[in-house]
Amino acid sequence: MNYKESEAQTAQVNWHEFMPGIAIDCVIFGYHDKELKILILEYKKTGLFALPGGFVKKDEELNAAAKRVLKERTGLTDIYLNQFHTFGSLERADPKPMRKILEKNQGVAKQGHFLLQRFISVSYFALVDFKQVEPVPDLLSDSCLWYDINDLPPLMLDHEHIFKTALYHLRENINSHVVGQNLLDDTFTMGELQKLHETILGEKLHRTGFHRKMMLSGQLKRLGKKKTGKAHRAPFLYKFVKD
User: Fold this and answer.
1) CA dist., res. 44 & res. 49, Å (int)
2) Of 164, 153, 202, residue with least CA distance to 36
3) Whole-model pTM above 0.70?
4) Closest-CA residue to 55 (of 108, 10, 17, 93)
5) Lowest-confidence pick of 59-63, 88-92, 185-189, 213-217
6) CB-based contact 87:100 (threshold 8 Å)
7) How many CA atoms lie within 13 A of 199 on its CB side?
């Protein structure tokens, strides 16, 4: 899709289909090359960056809207999704960033435009298989790309706060099987699982203690050894026990 096609589609959106004052923002986590990443949008010709988001249709349930937004940005349907917080600070009432985005896309930001109102954000974090995602920008964006959580661009409005809150909740749930189950391959070594935990927590973990804790959790099933060509050094493979 070229710029003019995107501009035309943006202008044709029927904003009356959506609930006023309610937005959805998504922190989409993926794990790749021992790095925890999130998807970030860059708005056209503005230098503004934001979390992927959208709005709730008047005939749509809230969670269904979040799943729709995630599918539009990632191409995936079967995604682990967690509604973790609602954000409603007055910082969200600042129309200047969105006015700039509209002016760069449509040449004018009419008074009373749907996108210039104050929004309360119902926020979700999602855990996705990095390798399966094909990021797609929305109609107002040039790109939708993965960024390492330790090297994020400045985010508009309160989106940095939303991200940090999502990361806090992810860390609080680090011992849940859904984290590794959604961010790792189906089978993995104990070292790979430990590295995932260390990356999310931002700290080193004691190898023996971590191994013992995970085996006592009842979440893991040990399989055969990983094929490395060096049988005496090959680590065991594990998988998560299904609920």
Assistant:
1) 10
2) 202
3) yes
4) 17
5) 88-92
6) no
7) 22
Report pLDDT digits (tens) over 125-145.
999 999 999 999 988 899 999
Which tokens in the block code for residue 65?
């809207």
pLDDT tens-digit map of 33-52: 999 999 999 999 899 999 99
Residues 6+ apart with CB under 8 A from 215: none
DSSP class of residue 50 equals E
Nearest Cα residue to 217 out of 165, 169, 181, 166: 181
Q: Which of 150, 25, 135, 154 is nearest to 72 (CA)?
A: 135
Cα angle 79-82-84, degrees, rounded to a multiple of 5: 155
Q: Hey, what domains does the chain have and what are their CATH numbers?
A: 3-172 (3.90.79.10), 177-240 (1.10.10.10)
List C-alpha distances in Å: 219 to 4, 71, 91, 93, 127.
51, 29, 42, 44, 18
Question: Largest Cα–Cα distance of the chain, in whole Å?
Answer: 71
| Total H helices, total E strands in the chain | 7, 10
